[in-house]
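Complex 192.
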Amino acid sequence: MTVCPSMSSPISPLPNTHMPARLAAARYRVYQLWRSLLPRPLTNDDHDILIATLPPAGRAVFASMSRNDQRHSLTVYRALRARGCDDADLLAAALLHDSGKGGGRVRLWVRPPVVLLRAFAPRLLDWLTRRAVNGTCVPRWRRPFYYAWHHAEIGADLAAEAGLSERAVLLIRTHHQPHGPAAELHAVDDAV
Ligand SMILES: [Fe+2]
Ligand SMILES: [Fe+2]
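Predicted structure with fe (ii) ion bound:
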């Protein structure tokens, strides 16, 4: 996949929180990462959820994610269901919201640096994840950071190609916006 400047939407400004809060958030994210190093295989129940929620091409996108991202997505799905959610678009978006990290685009090693840079060196992260200029493509060495930061847009494009509804695609594209169309997905994603 080439990484070209046609991918839209600017980098979100980082929240202006106090250092202790940012440190706590970064520590929690790193803990989440290590907790997910040995994810359980999918169960029959998990496969039933996928069949009931995603079209075949959407299930192929799901399968392109790492096992821990698959497990995370199912956890988000189940958390939404536990809150009484029966919104088909939102539940499909839950299963594919991080699919932009799949296909080997965002390997595990890149995630702790992104979390720590976001908390403590946002300008450096902004530089690492910036788009290419003048029609050139993002240099190969910067792509893991670019993909990590822009995975919502990449996942939305994959979901659109897989035939998900326009609304489900929008929910994936905006799942990092706390007050956007996917606010409920964002809240659950942040909490699990
Ligand atoms: Fe995400
Ligand atoms: Fe997520």
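The mean pLDDT is 88.
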